[in-house]
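Let us walk through a complete example step by step. Step one is to write down the protein sequence. Step two is to encode the small molecule, calcium ion, as a SMILES string so that its atoms and bonds are unambiguous. Step three, shown after the inputs, is the structure prediction itself.
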Amino acid sequence: MDRSDVTVNTSRSVTRPLGAIALVAGLALGSAAVQAGPASANDGVCGPGDLCLYENTLFGGGRWDDSGYVSDYTSGHKWWGTTRTVQDAASSAKSKYSFWTAYVWEHSFYRGDYVPVPPGGQVSVFADFGMENKASSNNY
Ligand SMILES: [Ca+2]
Ligand SMILES: [Ca+2]
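Step three: the predicted structure of the complex.
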């Protein structure tokens, strides 16, 4: 624990160049967290730190939330409280994450076209990015 505290303090005290290294470290941690407990991530509440997807434009229909990196929506991700898959069905999004832009990708493992969702922001019509009912993964 002391070692990780030192790492965080070091990266924060230096500006841009090491910021990229901190981002990579965060990506690795996020992936581990998703693998550890995906079942608890989607709780129907768009809470602090979450990326929240919606089945319809303007944040309507089914909703789904997750605070980590999700590499493939085909791996059991459903709209909260439903049996409908999130895969290729999202039409809008909000991000409650404070630090970096969230990216919602056309294909699994962060490939293809994408929708950028600004920190604390939202995208009400995925079709504006050519991404209506196409989303398959998300990261930061
Ligand atoms: Ca949709
Ligand atoms: Ca897709």
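Step four is interpretation. The helical segments are 2-13, 16-36.
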